[in-house]
Input
Amino acid sequence: MKNDWTKPAAAAIPKEGFFKLEEGRYGPIYPKTPACYGFTIIAKIKPGREETIRQYGKTIEKTIAELPDALAVLKLHYLRWVLFDIGKDTYFMYQGIFDTDFDKYTEDAVALFSKYGISTVFENLEGFPEDWKTNSAAFVKFVREHQCPSFLEYGEYPYVSADEIKKALKLKAAFSDMLDQMQ
Amino acid sequence: MLEFEDIQHILLTRVPALTGRYEFLTFHSAEGGRAWLAEIIGTVQSSTQVRASVENDKRWVTVAFTWNGLRALGVDEASLATFPLEFRQGMAARAEIIGDTGANQPGNWVGGLANPDLHAIVILFARDKTERERCQAEYQKLVARCEGVEALSSLDLEATPPFDYAHDHFGYRDRMSQPVIEGSGEEPTPGTGAPLKAGEFILGYPDEDGPPANLPQPEILSCNGSYMAYRRLQEHVGAFRDFLRRHGRTPEEQELVAAKLMGRWRSGAPLVLAPDRDDPELGADRQRNNNFNYKQMDPIGYAVPLGSHMRRMNPRDTAANVNRRRIIRRGATYGPPLAENAPEDGVERGIAAFVICASLIRQFEFLQNVWANDRNFHELGNERDPIIGNQDGTLDFKIPKRPIRKTITGLPAFTTVRGGAYFFLPGIKALRYLAALDDGHKVQS
Output
C-alpha cells in the first residue's frame, strides 16, 4: 500500500525531477514523494548582500511569532534557508517541504511573499525579476529556473500531511485529557 | 469610473432572455472577417445602451475572439505576443491543466471547438424564439455576404421550465452568488462581500492587487476588454436522478442528497441557513440566500460538505486571497428538459456558460485546477467537485455527519465537457479598431 505511514520509504527521482510529465498551470508538476512535495531553490546572491539576507531571518522569526498562521495557506512542513560559498560567490538555498504541489498556490505564495517580506530576500538574488509583484509568470519562471530537483527523497513516515500529524497530536491530547477527567 | 459606453454589456448586465444562440465561426480571409465585424458591430450593445433600453430590447449581441481569431483578423505578431500564454495556447491545449481528460478530453469535443480554426463567437440572447429566429436569419445573410467567413457550428439555447426562475436541468436554482464590481452601481446582497475592484474582471482598471499591469498592446485593443472561458457542459439528468434514488429512500432524503452535492437545496436555500429541510422562500430571497460564511457557521461541513460544488467554487472565508479568484458567470441551458420520471433519453442537454475574468490562469484555471479538480482540496483525499469535477467513477464524496460521516464511493460523472474555448472580449472601441485594421498594420507605440 502506497500510503502506509508505518513503512519508511525512499524514492529515486529521474533527472528532470518527475516520473511522468504532468502539466500544471505554470509548467511541469514535481511529484509527491515519501517526503511529500518540496523544492530546493539555489541562487547566487548579489555581491555584498549576505548580511541583508541574514537579517531577514530575524524578520521572519518575528512575523511568525506574531502571526503563527501567516504561511498556513502554503501547507508547509518545514522551510530551511541556507547561505553558503562557492569560491568567491555566495549562494542562497531555500528548501521547502509541503503538502501540495507549489504550482497550485503560486499566486498565493507570491502574495504572501510580498506581504511578509520574504520577497525582499529574493530581491537580493541575481536575476530575480524586478517586476515580480505584477508579473507572477516572471516570478514563477525564476523559481523554476533555480529549482534543483532531488534525485532521492526519504520519509520515515511517508506521505503523511502536516494536517494529519496535527490531527493525530490533537487526538492524543484529547485522549490524554479524557483520561485525566476519568481519574 | 467605469467606461460603461465602451464595455460590452455581457460583462456588467444580465438580460431577460429565455432563449438564444451561440454562433462559432472561422475567417478564411482577414478582409472578409473585418467586413463581417464592421457590420455586426452595429448590433453589439455596450453596458450603457443595455441599461437604458433593456426593458424594450428583444435581443442582445456579444462578440469575442480566440487568439487565432485575432491573428486571422490581421492583428500583427508583436501585438499577439503581448497576450498571456494561456490565452495564446487556448483551452484545448490546456486540457490537462483544467481537468479535461478522459471523457472530457478535447478529442471528444463537438462543434469544432477544439479546432484551431475556431476564430470567433457571437452570443445572441433573445427574449423569445421568434426573435431568435429573426436574428438567426439576419445573421445568416450577413455571413453569406462576407467572403471567407464560415460558420463552424452553433448551439441553440433554451431556458428550462418552469420559467419563473433560472435553473439548470438538474433543477438547481442558478445565479445565486455573483461578485459585484466596484463602480458598477450594483449593491452587493448581504453576505456577498464588498464590491471588488474592476480590474479583476475588466482590463485597464486597478485590480485587488493594484494598478493594471502587463496589458495586451496596443492599449486600445485591451482596455475595457476581458477574457471569457466558454464551457459546454452536458448534464446527465438520468444518471443524476438515478443517483439520488439510490442514495435516498424517500423524496425528502433524495432532496437532501442533491442539496449536499451542491451546498444548497435545489430551491437555492443554502444548507448553512437551512441544514435540515428545504426553505424555498429563503432560496428565492436575495436579501437572505447568500448571507452566510463557513469559518464560524460551518467549519466542519456538517451543513455544507467541504467538497460540495458551492464550497469549492467560493470557499468564502476558508481560503486565501479569494478576492483574486472570483469570476463572473453568464450563460444558459440548452437541450430539451427531461420530464420528471422519464428515463434518460440520450438527448444532449446541459449548460453552455462563460466564465468572465481578467486572468484566465489566476481565476478560471485556478478554479478548475485546484478548487474543482484537486483530489486533496481541503484534505479530502479522494474527491473532486461532484458537479463539474472530472469524475471517472473512482472518487468519493464525503458528507460530514454526527456521529460519523457518510461516504459515497464511486461517484458517477453527472456532467461531461462537450466543448470549450478561450475568448477575448474586446471593448466597443477595440471592436472598431479591429474592424479598421489593414494587413500592413503595425502596433502603434
Chain B has 15 helices and ten strands. Chain B touches chain A at residues 84-86, 94, 96-97, 209-210, 213-214, 319-321, 324, 361-362, 365-366, 369-370, 374, 376, 379 (CB under 8 Å). Residues 129-145 of chain B form the longest helix (17 residues).
